[in-house]
Automatic annotation (TrEMBL), chains A, B:
Keywords: Cell membrane, Membrane, Signal, Transmembrane, Transmembrane helix
Protein's name according to its UniProt entry: CASP-like protein
Casparian strip membrane protein domain span: 6-142
Family: Belongs to the Casparian strip membrane proteins (CASP) family.
Amino acid sequence: MTKYSKIFTFLLRLLALAGTVAAVVVMITSHDSAKVLNLTFTAKYSNTPAFKYFVIVEAIAGAYSLMTLFLSSKNLFRRLVIILDVVVTVLLSSCISAALAIADVGKKGNNHAGWLPVCGQVRKFCDHVTGSLAAGFVAAVLYFLLLLYSLYNVLDPLLL
Amino acid sequence: MTKYSKIFTFLLRLLALAGTVAAVVVMITSHDSAKVLNLTFTAKYSNTPAFKYFVIVEAIAGAYSLMTLFLSSKNLFRRLVIILDVVVTVLLSSCISAALAIADVGKKGNNHAGWLPVCGQVRKFCDHVTGSLAAGFVAAVLYFLLLLYSLYNVLDPLLL
């Protein structure tokens, strides 16, 4: 691994760490309440399983990113890290997709199933969720790039 | 690549192909209708963006699996295939998660958002979706195993 390549992957991991931390913080601080027909309803992330899954995975990915920032770049670690990068990338793509699917119903509703959009009532909550998903999406894309870059380095560069 | 290793990956790809084809067929043949308060409502996969995304990705993954079954095992191809395997695995994990998140709301609803479960009314539709998701999940797991196995072969086996 050249010096530049090390700096590049370090930066990608640092940005991914920032993305996951932002995603977790923005999501867990999201709450809002609305009064509809004299019933107060409170929106918070923990009411939706997909958002809880999102927070858990982003937290794991954040902790993993932090760990790998300070790992020695010995070959043994570097190769194990590629395998773990695959796992983290798959988990990130999974959690962002689940959360996005639910956020889409929250914003647009689904006529056919009779699910009404809720973002008109709890705008603050939806803004937080949107911000959190954006940060999580950036982290997922960074991990995907990191993985492709690692594979590109490990596999024969001439063939790619 | 040894003979056994070739047979093993061929079998994994064949099973993954079967899984994706089953997921697509079962999902697109799912429809049911119910009468609630004199209103007939029809459930089909194309009413839900997450299910449409699921069908598209499963179809792409199926086509890719079919192609790779008959690819020559020359090194150039083998290494490109690993990169594409990463992309397909990430896409599969993404589509299954999005579809699962919506299916979960369909089955259990979400009190807090006022979304009622619909599976009681359109049981046939929900059974199809469940079957399709199970097939898609199997395909995703097979691709994940295939990817880990390919990486295990390409990276130094002693280190894993």
